[in-house]
From TrEMBL:
Pfam families: TGT. GO terms for molecular function: tRNA-guanosine(34) queuine transglycosylase activity. The lineage of its organism: Eukaryota, Fungi, Dikarya, Ascomycota, Pezizomycotina. This is tRNA-guanine(15) transglycosylase-like domain-containing protein. PANTHER family: QUEUINE TRNA-RIBOSYLTRANSFERASE CATALYTIC SUBUNIT 1.
Amino acid sequence: METAPMSALTFDIVARCSVTKARAAILRLPHGRVDLPIFMPVATQGTLKGLTPEQLENTGYSGGFQMVSLLKLARITEEGVRFLSPHDGTPMLLTPEHSISLQNSIGSDIVMQLDDVLVTTSPDHQRMEEAMRRSIRWLDRCIAAHKYPEKQNLFCIIQGGLDLDMRRECCEEMVKRDTPGIAIGGLSGGEAKASYCAVVDTCTGLLPEKKPRYVMGVGYPEDLMVSVALGADMFDCVWPTRTARFGNAITSWGTLNLRNSSYAQDFSPIEAGCGCACCKPVEDGGLGMTRAYIYHVAAKETAGAHLLTIHNVHYLLSLMRSARTAIIEDQFPVFLKEFFKKLYGDRKNFPEWAVNALRKVNVDLLVE
């Protein structure tokens, strides 16, 4: 068994919610400070679709890098992942050692282990167990291959599907390796939200308090808020940028499809009071874009997706900032109730999975 030799980060918890498992923290990395909890937009091929680097900087957060293996026609063995290049069809082999070498050469603050991932809804229990155990073995190889632990942080990835016993075993083994941070992977693959919450709640209950917890592939606002209450700190997802390309704007009141003709004569901003460059009035230094303008360009030009990406990324980053403030002020349960009330209106519309998950951390959304 390999153990991570050192850490290039500091993680300080500055506040804990007195009711839920939520916490506010400061993560200091070689390239700067990150306030947690945080949502991280996914940068496919090193760039955030729809935004220039300058515009991304103006949303208020530094970027990251995520390496994603394309697993179409892939064959996974103990050696690594064999797949066809998405560019020219050339057979390729990605091993744990090579994945770490690539990330070492990029210089990213956070390096993710190569893990064996199986969709959570798979009925193949034996294959799920194999993937979980292989991910542990691959972590040992990643730790051994990691060249720069003094300036780059290797995160392990907890696997095990929806089987809580597998998740517990994986948590126990991964924690022994003592990596600087810990990710919970293999979720958001079509599983029931109640099952997702059970996995996150179980894992956070077993992970060290003084390390950042990263739940991979989560981006819906209500999923983020429940996951924060369950004790997670970091999240990433393609959804806010992908949904922008289909004309959708994320707001506190729900998602608006601005390709709908009902917005053709609507000259209000996407969301009143939003501080993003798209919504902010011209006199305040913004673009002053209206729903009507975005309706006009959304289906015909890239400008619509560009503007909606600015708004959507800003919305989620702002939501996480607000959640952090509520945790620090020990008002997070109140914040959760206000968030769900605004998003769903009548309490009878609140999703059952969210109500049940939050009850487990002492918040009853159905009670004032």
